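Handout for the seminar on molecular recognition.
Each group receives one record of this type.
Step one: identify the two inputs.
Step two: read the structure output and locate the region that could contact phosphoenolpyruvate.
Step three: write two sentences on what you found, then compare them with the reference statements printed after the record.
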Amino acid sequence: MAAQETVEHKYVYDFAEGNKDLKDLLGGKGANLAEMTNLGLPVPPGFTITTEACKAYLTTGREPDGLAGQIEAHLESLERAMDRRLGDPDDPLLVSVRSGAKFSMPGMMETVLNVGLNDRSVVGLSAQAGGNDRFAWDSYRRLIQMFGKTVCEVPGEEFEHALDEAKRAKGTKNDLDLDADDLRGLVDAYKQIFAKHTGREFPQEPREQLDLAIRAVFDSWNAERAILYRRQERIPADLGTAVNVVSMVFGNLGPDSGTGVAFTRDPGSGAQGIYGDYLANAQGEDVVAGIRNTVPLQELERLDKTSYDQLLGIMARLEEHYKDLCDIEFTIERGKLWMLQTRVGKRTAAAAFVIAGQLVDEGLIDLDEALHRVNGAQLAQLMFPRFQLDHDFQPVATGIGASPGAASGKVVFTSARAVELAAEGEAVILVRRETNPDDLNGMIAAKGILTSRGGKTSHAAVVARGMGKTCVSGADEIEVNVPAKTFTVGGHTVGEGDVVSIDGTTGKVYLGEVPVMPSEVVQYFEGSLDPEHIDNPLVRAVHRIMTHADAARRLRVRTNADTGADAARARRFGAEGIGLCRTEHMFLGDRRELVERLILASGEREREDALAALLPLQRADFVEIFREMDGLPVTVRLIDPPLHEFLPPLEQLAVNVAVAQERGEDVAKEEALLSAVRRMHEENPMLGLRGVRLGLVIPGLFAMQVRAIAEAAVAVVRDGGRACPEIMVPLVGAVQELETVRAEAEKIIAEVVGDSGVEVLIGTMIEVPRAALTAGQIAEAAEFFSFGTNDLTQMGWGFSRDDVEGAFFWRYLELGIFGISPFESIDADGVGRLVRIAAEEGRAARPGLKLGVCGEHGGDPDSVHFFHEVGLDYVSCSPFRVPVARLEAGRAAISTTGSDSR
Ligand code: PEP
Ligand code: MG
């Protein structure tokens, strides 16, 4: 065995040693400073301490072995390059110590400037600055202030108070009026504050200052605000920050100095041009603090044409090099331009599409890369109408943004009133504690839905998303009083007819009408904007990138739709069939009475009559849907929810019966209903008599549906259409269940289709964990599987999908048990594993088995990537999410190398 060698870990990189692809190790700032250095751009020399060093420090509570020596070596070479020593009394090198994680976390971590200044080097700095005492003392007081605050946790207000005091004594409000003597006095005051709070003198030793500042930056990774920001932005908690030690350059050395920020394109709209701000005679933190007003960057041309031209040249070079919008921070020190930072700039959703399109036109990137640079979340944002919040609107409550969009309208508290007012042409917002299937008509009629209970997979949320309707759920500050037709919130009482506005993206609720702008991107998908002939750069870019995504993707995209209108809209949005047609809504409304007859039937005869009455209605529903989806597959799911959901609630019924009895009325019918409801009552209806279980228990129910589907398909085909029905059995857990349903269905289908040429596939949902684990057996009886990831998540985790999100998910998110609700994005490790097992074992048993997903995850960007990787054939999602799924399926299919779109 070879002798063990201890190779010292490399913790420090000179700027010349790094490059832009080393963000994991050097953080975004360090990697890009290195890249600019190697491009030959004017970057002040420096070095980067790696995220590895930070992680080691945070785990053990001390700097890793070797770090101190490596810092020493790099400091020495920096001193040689600058021909100055850190804190040298006569001619000091000063450095800034800056945080910089892999992902930008603006303002969340620490920075200390002017490290190396002390009672002696302040004099040397003044000499360096041509005898500018004021500048030197101002720099020193800034060091004590920043160092005190960030490194030693001295309360910042104390320094600010002392500064205000100095200005008051001078009779001024402006920092610039303080002269060198005033600032020297302020340094003394600051030192006293420092000593009072830390019990020690301000450290005079430059290297000690440096080491403490580095340690403070490491520690700032775990500052409370940084933790919160990471959680919000879904940045992993274990990345750590790098630390950049950079030689100081000064923008506050006089009118020929200054500092600024610039973007190579407009980050708001993506328009080409030069965008930025400049502040003469100032340091970067003055811009952030808003001490004086900045001027537009174009002004720099007049102030310092040489630097301006040089900056423009560098910006063009950076764009060409990064092939993307860059943002930049720079400083001019006495007419010399220095680049302090660059990165691929953040942008709005619209700018992301527009810029990606422009860069393709400019030949800087290809269409694959353009597709990689945008994402489904951005597209979704562009598809919803938005509030114009330029006026003074303050939200009165915040719930869960359950279905995005912006809607204003008159408040109503019942489905019936929503329908009435909508028929009169009024925009209404349906406000409920929570919705149930009976509210469907009201939900269709309303512009938006607001509930005070329920999470992202509550009835209101799922149905609203399905319709592309704005919904805020679980706004628990709102107290709904249906009998009084009011709700109260924060001291306001809102009655029926009062106007409210709800934002389904942010979950915010406003009183009054907030103006709304429609989405041009939806107009384009709807076909009312021709992308080739309109002068809208956003629509043109969306069209181009979507076309490319469609060409690239392997996954087909279907929709979940159960009406002709939804099917038609989804088709315009690019759906390639229906992956889930839920048949339960077809049993509501006028048909409720027939369903009651079915449930209450006392004998075979009565039941058959009820089914016979339902058959033509169902058939007509399917004919409409097959026509809209002509030539495309339509998966119709046999009825799933427990039957008692179609009956009135137990309590209400009991009260009605009691009251009627009291009045001496004939209550025979109500009593029969009540006893049926009592009989069918379940403690856990989600785990009770639903899905295939219902089909096996109620004779003729599934048979009626199968017949309606087959007859509808034959009718459409006889009319010259092309119907491709797929019958799907819900909630199967054992192959025997499916085999029983299949045997009956096959007989009916054979009888109905005859020689019409109609082909009907029979498959199953995989939504019970046992089905996933016995997929090999189930595949023997199924021509396709569709993963019902809503129930699979519910049963996989044992989380009631109607309750848990509002009840305790906040705590789970806070604890980091998961980063996002598993109902929203597939839990790849657990529930995803069930999908993987079922896909593999199903296909092993039946090669070519068609696989899809129709749970809510089918339209979730991250989940689409997972389903692509597992090898499903299609995803199915609500009509509005079809374009998002198309885009993400395209992104999943192209290579994943390239820039990070975060
Ligand atoms: C599912 O469970 O994922 C599914 C699609 O069925 P439903 O949401 O209707 O239960
Ligand atoms: Mg289900």
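Reference statements: The first strand starts at residue 12 and ends at 14. Residues 896-902 have pLDDT under 50 and may be disordered.
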